[in-house]
Amino acid sequence: MRKKLSLMAPSLIFFFSLCFTLCFAGNVSYDSRSLIINGERKLLISAAIHYPRSVPAMWPELVKTAKEGGVDVIETYVFWNVHQPTSPSEYHFDGRFDLVKFIKIVQGAGMYLILRIGPFVAAEWNFGGIPVWLHYVNGTVFRTDNYNFKYYMEEFTTYIVNLMKKEKLFASQGGPIILSQVENEYGFYEGAYGEGGKRYAAWAAQMAVSQNTGVPWIMCQQFDAPPSVINTCNSFYCDQFKPIFPDKPKIWTENWPGWFQTFGAPNPHRPAEDVAFSVARFFQKGGSVQNYYMYHGGTNFGRTAGGPFITTSYDYEAPIDEYGLPRLPKWGHLKELHKAIKLCEHVVLNSKPVNLSLGPSHEADIYADASGGCVAFLANMDDKNDKTVEFRNVSYKLPAWSISILPDCKNVVYNTAKVTSQTALVEMVPDNLQQEGGSKAIKWEVFVEKAGIWGEPDFMKNSFVDHINTTKDTTDYLWYTTSIVVGENEEFLKEGRHPVLLIESMGHALHAFVNQELQGSASGNGTHSPFTFKNPISLKAGRNEIALLSMTVGLQNAGSFYEWVGAGLTSVKIKGFNNGTVDLSHFNWIYKIGLQGEKLGIYKPEGVNSVSWVATSEPPKKQPLTWYKAVLDPPAGNEPVGLDMLHMGKGLAWLNGEEIGRYWPRKSSALGKCVTECDYRGKFMPDKCLTGCGQPTQRWYHVPRSWFKPSGNLLVIFEEKGGDPEKITFARRKTSQHMFSHCRGLSLSRSKIIAGSWKQELQYQGICPSGVPPKMALYQL
After folding, report:
1. Which of 360, 419, 490, 624 is the most exposed place for a label (fewest CB within 10 A)?
2. SS3 of 563, please?
3. How far is CA 638 from the centre of its chain?
4. Which part of the chain is the Glycoside hydrolase 35 catalytic domain (predicted)?
């Protein structure tokens, strides 16, 4: 048959390929052991890839890399607020929001898809994925038994389901979608809503099932899910999870192979060995579907990051990095795990396990089917000590915190702690900005915003307003401005002292200007949004203009009643007058929403000439409220590209009108909490293996290659507080994937994080030559 197939006409081969991708799905059912697709039981490895966090040009390669990594299923949320950003009457599915195109790419690769419609998603995404406009529909309360919320939630869910049906994308229609999800991790918050929460959860399940998709619905972390849906687990470890009802399979919707980042915090790392341990343990204990959240995290382009304070990068230390490259050895180590699990699939799905104790923290789970097949998982849960165990009269050495997989109950094909896959070094190679035409002398042009009210005021009030309720998230920026008259007899004028400006804010960040001069900045952080600003300021005799630029850094994305969490100023005082402290809180405040450059769209090619730019060969440094633009050639080569903003302050960036996102090379202040090596042994938590203390949380900002034109690329930067634009560079992300290809068989008790120390360990063991340069890159865990 192989010989005949090789002689078939290309058109016939294409037909068979097409049939495979279009006809592979059909009936999806389940029992207590697994999903059953077209009558066949499946152990499924799933990978979360969110379509808005990459670009269409990346999607085919991302899906291909996932499939090559041994993945069966792609999972994605549906992001309500990108499809209905401004009103319930308009839908958007263009560009990176083209959900149908993304799913069809998955289908074309012959893979399944899990569609998590939500439509609340959390996901460190702005406002949890719910459109901001819905908060301002009178009487609306999110995620409870509230008429307005349920009405719009059902309307959107039905629209998405009908779109999938129209395109024949559910498995029941021959498409790739085998599971759908409604709501998201509601069990954590349901109690805060009382009986209304219980009614809402039951309604959400009923509403979803009534859509008649022909595939099962799931609800993750829903502790009172009704029997019409499958409740699932989200955690770093889900081996002990049990579904509510005995007829449901054990599904893990979110296994976190890393963690998200917030501006100003160190970077978390989860070792590949521990990720593999968690997955092997899940399948050892009867798991059926396991999904990596994330497998490719991608980028929070524009203002889509939530939190607040979530970084523009959503790399998540996932098996495929933010730029679309395999993260080695994590990607490779998990690929080998997936191969081992698939060798066991038939036996473990068609037999019941027998548990055998091999010691105090050591055990075997043995699966044996009627045909004589046998699979064993040998586990060492001791988080400190290696152990040699006896199993069926054979000795097996088990490293601490590891599992060995024996697909024939004899031979170990994989151990979770033994990383034998290829490793890589990654570096961001600087590529200086090239002026259009190849000149290295960049011709920057600048436009400076006025500190305070530009154009006509939006309104005036003798009190403070909530930032978010005022901007409705159309912008990060809101100006609060007032004035104060200083008498000539004030002692601080005579003595050359500076009064102190005291500001209390609910969040998220602030720049304070007096008489058009920046006096200082302050902000909250990823764990506490409110902050206090306390800074000496320069006042003159006579009238002084106080202009305070309040900023959001992504909206709250989860929590009970999270939509009511506010931002902005609550108190402004000046300390140091002859009569004591002056409270400005009830002065006449004049408000302006957003920036002039934003309003005019000067970051877009069609709006760039709306203001008068000033050309300069030496752009101003450390100057706040400044727009910079340059026309550039693309970086050389075809590697992924990042924008190096190390020497800038805080702001926004665009290329050819596309939103690169917020930049903020804010340094981590968590000194003393970081490590130089990470022990994979023992349960992982996000603060276990931190790096980057005293360094910017995010230095490089992903600029997709598909956004570049052959020439004439418009780069626009808005800098809030001042930086050095001459030091902005592109960087090409390069991997040396074969650098240590001869270092196979490596098994360390600790994963080295810093490249230099890891290199030294390899050299010490005689595994790799001393001439291998560590560069500046991380060993990718």
Report:
1. 360
2. helix
3. 24
4. 34-340
> Which residues partner with 480 through β-bridges?
548, 591
Q: How far is CA 482 from CA 71, 464, 550, 579, 588, in A?
A: 58, 11, 14, 20, 6
d(CA 85, CA 97): 11
Q: Is 114 helix (H, G, I), strand (E, B) or coil?
A: strand
State the sign of the Cα–Cα–Cα–Cα dihedral 310, 315, 317, 318. positive
The DSSP element (H or E) to which 294 belongs, if any, is: strand 289-296
Task: Please give, one letter per residue, the 3-state secondary structure of 427-454.
Answer: EEEEECCEECCCCCCCCEEEEECCCCCC
Rounded Cα–Cα distance for residues 708 and 721 (Å): 28
Question: Residue 506's pLDDT is what?
Answer: 98
* Long-range contact set of residues 197-205: C-beta below 8 Å, sequence gap at least 24: 197/143, 197/144, 197/145, 198/224, 199/145, 200/143, 200/144, 200/145, 200/146, 200/150, 201/225, 202/226, 203/145, 203/150, 204/153, 205/229
Angle at 539 between CA 535 and CA 543, to 5 degrees: 135
Measured distance CA(761)–CA(755) in Å, rounded: 10
Read off the tokens for 140. 């609306």
Q: In what helix (H) or strand (E) does residue 267 lie, and over which residues does it extend?
A: strand 267-268
CA distance 626 to 642: 22
Residues 707-764 have pLDDT tens digits of 999 999 999 999 999 999 999 999 999 988 544 433 333 333 344 443 333 332 332 2
Question: Edge-to-edge, what's the strand order for the sheet holding 402-406?
Answer: 353-359, 362-368, 374-380, 402-406, 414-415
Under DSSP, the state recorded for 567 is: -
Mind spelling out the 3-state secondary structure of 653-692?
Answer: EEECCEEEEEECCCEECCCCCCCCEECCCCCCCCCCCEEC
Hey, what are 246's tokens?
């005995």
Contact 347, 375 (CB under 8 A): yes
* Phi, psi (degrees; rounded to nearest 5) at 186: -75, -25
Between the alpha carbon of residue 237 and those of residues 48, 276, 361, 381, the distances in Å are 17, 11, 17, 13
573: exposed, middle or buried (Cβ count in 10 Å: 0-12, 13-18, 19+)? middle
Residue with tokens 């697994």: 34
Active site residues: 185, 254
**CA 550 – CA 724 distance, rounded (Å):** 23
Alpha-carbon dihedral sign for residues 570, 576, 577, 579:
positive
For residue 201, give the H/E element and its range: helix 194-209
Both tokens of 507, joined, read 């969040």
Query: CB neighbours of 14 closer than 8 A, spacing ≥ 6?
Result: none
Percent of the chain with pLDDT strictly greater than 70: 90
With beta carbons less than 8 A apart as the criterion, state whether 520 and 534 touch: no
Whole-angstrom Cα Rg for the chain:
28
Helix (H, G, I), strand (E, B) or coil at 305: strand
Please provide the DSSP assignment of 314-346 as one string. --TT-SB-TTS-B-TTHHHHHHHHHHHHHHHHH
Point out the residues of the chain with pLDDT beneath 50.
Answer: 1-23, 738-781
Question: In this structure, which amino acid lies at residue 177?
Answer: I
- pLDDT, position 774: 30
What secondary structure letter does DSSP report for 272?
A: H
The beta strands (E) that lie in 381-437 are given as 387-391, 394-398, 402-406, 414-415, 425-431, 434-435
How distant, in Å, are the alpha carbons of 34, 224, 239 from that of 245?
14, 10, 17
Query: Rounded to a whole number, what is the distance in angstroms from the first to the last CA of the chain?
Result: 43
Distance of CA 567 to the CA centre of its chain: 23
